[in-house]
Structures are given as structure tokens and as C-alpha cells.
Amino acid sequence: CLNFLKLCKVKYYNYCLIYNVQRDFIIQTGDPMGTGRGGESIFCQLYGDQARFFEAEKVPRIKHKKKGTVSMVNNGSDQHGSQFLITTGENLDYLDGVHTVFGEVTEGMDVLKTINETFVDKDFIPYQDIRINHTVILDDPFEDPPGLSVPDRSPEPTKEQLDSGRIGADEEIDDLKGRSADEIEEFQAEKEAKTRAILLEMVGDLPDAEIKPPENVLFVCKLNPVTT
């Protein structure tokens, strides 16, 4: 929990791609490289490469019972870095004891549903970019570790960050261009059962905690205070 909050605080997740969308199972993000092979814990920024990962915590064990469960991803060696997943299915008990649950989505389940239904390739990568544009912390019960450098403003994305080789998150798609009236009618009928990738802000910039969030905002809260 501390690791996730401090990574949010230093804007580590800004512009991260959602690079793994498996319908009715999980969505995965948290790797700035967008490959699922990168990322690092907040402790790496404090203590160097030897602290890129930290040991996965097993207690208390919270299970992946419901949609919207948020977990740090196991790197294969029972360690965590920055990658995390959000479940889009229920009773995923085979994830228990592997990935560490530290929170849950309490608002914005419609956003989660939209991501869950996006078009992906054979490797579960969305055809159109879906990104975390910004993160805002409404409550942080943990003291900042000594030496933590917090930016005074959100950094601008680099060209490399935005160049995924896919359809850009802010790129308009004209589904009707060049279609006949009959084709448009047929397409609209098909579209009722499908969805396309959209620009997402997982957590938007809110003036205060009481304001009603926009419809494209996802709240991660009920964090487990025992986990780091």
C-alpha cells in the first residue's frame, strides 16, 4: 500500500499504458515501458537498483473474490515492483497467495467495464492506447520515506512514452467514413454488442474529496494499511 501511494505521489504512473486486458479476468498496468517486463518499486528510487523489487507480503491474505480487487503483480520470484492488476471477474481464487491484494475500486465500475470490453489482439494488448493520465491522492496515512523526491507538478510525457505503435489514446476514429447508408445501419447494429478502446483517466484531478467525480474516473480506495 505504501509502495503504491508513494509511486502515485511521485507521478510514476502518469502516462502508463494498460497493456494487458483479459476479459472477465484482469486488466494490468504500472509498467512505464508498457511491456509488462519493466517497472520498479518506490524503494528503487530511494536505495538504488538493489531495491527494484521488494518481497511479496502474504499476511493478511485478502482474496480475489470480487470485481475491482487491486493487487500488486508478482514478478515470478515472489516480489513486487510497480505493476498492478485490477480484477474484472469474480472468485479468482487461483490468484490468491500469488498477487498481493492491497485495495479495491469503489467508484467507477462502469469505467472498468468499458476497459474490460475493449478490443485487444492475441496478446491481450488493446488496439487503441488506454493510459493513466494522472493520479491524485486523497488520503495518505504514511509518512514520506527520507529522501523521497516529490515533483511540484506533473511531468510532461516524452515522445517515447506516447509512441506505442498503436492507435493513440486521443486519436479520433471515424467508424462511418466511406460507408454506405446500409453499411452504416449494419455497423450501428453491430456496435450495440461491441465497444472500442477509449481515452481513460484512471484518477482525475479533483478540487476536493467531496466533489462528484466525472464518469471516466476510477477510484482505488479501501487500501490495506498493513501492506507496504
Automatic annotation (TrEMBL):
Keywords: Isomerase, Nucleus, RNA-binding, Rotamase. Its EC number is 5.2.1.8. It is found in: Nucleus. Residues 1-137 form the PPIase cyclophilin-type domain. PROSITE patterns: CSA_PPIASE_2 (PS50072). One of its GO terms (cellular component) is nucleus. It holds the Pfam family Pro_isomerase. It comes from the Eukaryota. InterPro entries: CRIP, Cyclophilin-like_dom_sf, Cyclophilin-type_PPIase_dom, Cyclophilin_PPIL4. Belongs to the cyclophilin-type PPIase family. This is Peptidyl-prolyl cis-trans isomerase. It comes from Chloroceryle aenea (American pygmy kingfisher).
